[in-house]
Amino acid sequence: MRARPWRVAVVGGGITGLAAALRLRDRAPADTEITVYEQSGALGGKLRTGELAGRPVEFGAESFLMRDPAGGESAAVALARRLGLAGRIVHPTVGQAALVVDGGLRPIPGGTLVGVPGDLAAVAAVAEPTADADRDGGRPLLDANQDVSVGALVRARFGEQVVQRLVDPMLGGVYAGRADDLSLVTTMPALARAARVEHTLVGAVRAAQAAAPRAPGAPVFGTLDGGLSTLVEAAATASGATIRRNAAVRELTPVGGGWRLTVGPTRDPESVEADAVLLTVPARPTARLLAGFAASPAATVGGLDYASVALVTLALPAPALPRLSGFLVPATEGLLIKASTFFTTKWGHLAAPDGLALVRASVGRYGEETSLQVTDDDLLATVHRELTRVLGVALPTPVAGHVQRWGGALPQYAPGHTGRVAAVRAALRASHPTLAVAGAGFDGVGIPVCVRSGESAADEIIEALGGSGP
C-alpha cells in the first residue's frame, strides 16, 4: 500500500496547466493531491472572455481547431466533450476572409496550407508565383532531420510575392512573427513530413492535405457559446485541484526524491513539498526555475524569444461591414493592424438585433514592440482609422472600446526548435524524471496543442511516479 497520496504541483494556471491537472485527476490514483499555482489572479492564461458594450467578446484566443493533424477530433474538442461542453461548440457562420493587397481587400484563395498553395493558379489573383521554380530535382525537398524557415522554403519554390502576400500574413496572424524566422517543422509539421518525401512544394502541400482529409462542409474552427473562459472554469472545477491564485513560484529545488517549491513574495515566502512538478509557464520563467539544478536545459529554454501583441476591440453602431469573417494584412502594406476579425459577423450567435458590431484587430509584430508603446486611446484611434482606410467607408464612432495587451505572448520558433525541445526533455527525464515541462513555448500555439501538451506531461509524471505513491 502507498504510505500517503501523491502530491503533484502544477505551475501555471493556463489551459495547459489545467488540462494537465484534469488528466492527473482522471488517470492518477484517486487520492492524488493536485495543486495548481497561478501567479496572477485569473486562470486561463491567453483564454479570457470579457464584455464590451454588453456583448461577450474574447480578449485572448478566439477559437480552436476542430481536427487534429491526423484528421481526428482535436484535443480541444475532446476536452470540451470530457467536460460536458460539446453541445455548446459553435462554428463560424461566415468563413471567407480577405487579404489586404495594394490597399484593398481580396478574398483569401482556397486550397492553401497556412498560405502555402497546392494549386498555383488558384492564388494568381493575390500573388504571382515565380514561373517554373518548383521543379522536381529528383530528391525530397528536405533531408530526414532537416528543418528550415518557412519563408526560405516557400521563397525558393514560389517566389517573394507568395511569401509576402500569403504566407507571411497567415503566420503573422497566428504567431505575430515572420515567415523567414519561423520553423517549418514546428509551425507546419504536416508539410514538413510531406517535404521529406515529396520532390516539389506543390506535391508536398497536396500530400499534407490528403493525409488529413476534411469532409466537405466540415467546420475547421469552433468556439464555445458563452466564451472560452467557460472551458477554463469547467476544467479547473473538474480537476478537483487546489487552485492557488496570486501564488508565484519563485524557486524550485530538488530535495531527496521530490521537490521543494518556494511560493509567494520574497518577504513572506512559503515552502511547499511535492513529489512531482509540471512546469506549464512560458519559457523564461521556466528557465529561471530550472537554472539552479539544470543549467544547460535552462539556457536552451531561456533562449526562446516571444512577440508582444495587443488586441483592440471596437463596438461600432451598425457599421457597413463586408460579408467577411475578417482580413489579414501583409507587413508590406504599412499598417499597424496585422489582422482583424468582424466578430459579430463571423460568429452568428453573437449577432445583435440592434446592429451593434464588435470588430477586433490584432496589432504588434515580432521585433516591432515599439509600435505598442503608445496609449490605449492612441491604439483605439489608429485601429479605427486603419479599418476605415481598408474598408473604404467611414466607420461610425465607437460606442466602446477595449485594449488587451499581451506582453511576450507568442513564442517565436526558430528552425531546429523541435530538436532543441527534445534534447531538453531528454536531459530532464534522465536527471529529474518527476519534472515535466509543457505549454506553447515547447510544443506550439493553439488551444488543442496546449491541451495535448499538458496531458502528455501529466502522463509522463504518472509514469515516473510508477503507479504507487511514496
From TrEMBL:
<keyword id="KW-0963">Cytoplasm</keyword>
<keyword id="KW-0350">Heme biosynthesis</keyword>
<comment type="function">
    <text>Involved in coproporphyrin-dependent heme b biosynthesis. Catalyzes the oxidation of coproporphyrinogen III to coproporphyrin III.</text>
</comment>
<dbReference type="InterPro" id="IPR002937">
    <property type="entry name" value="Amino_oxidase"/>
</dbReference>
<keyword id="KW-0274">FAD</keyword>
<dbReference type="InterPro" id="IPR036188">
    <property type="entry name" value="FAD/NAD-bd_sf"/>
</dbReference>
<keyword id="KW-0285">Flavoprotein</keyword>
<dbReference type="GO" id="GO:0004729">
    <property type="term" value="F:oxygen-dependent protoporphyrinogen oxidase activity"/>
</dbReference>
<dbReference type="InterPro" id="IPR004572">
    <property type="entry name" value="Protoporphyrinogen_oxidase"/>
</dbReference>
<keyword id="KW-0560">Oxidoreductase</keyword>
<dbReference type="Pfam" id="PF01593">
    <property type="entry name" value="Amino_oxidase"/>
</dbReference>
<dbReference type="InterPro" id="IPR050464">
    <property type="entry name" value="Zeta_carotene_desat/Oxidored"/>
</dbReference>
<comment type="similarity">
    <text>Belongs to the protoporphyrinogen/coproporphyrinogen oxidase family. Coproporphyrinogen III oxidase subfamily.</text>
</comment>
<protein>
    <recommendedName>
        <fullName>Coproporphyrinogen III oxidase</fullName>
        <ecNumber>1.3.3.15</ecNumber>
    </recommendedName>
</protein>
<feature type="domain" description="Amine oxidase">
    <location>
        <begin position="15"/>
        <end position="462"/>
    </location>
</feature>
<comment type="pathway">
    <text>Porphyrin-containing compound metabolism; protoheme biosynthesis.</text>
</comment>
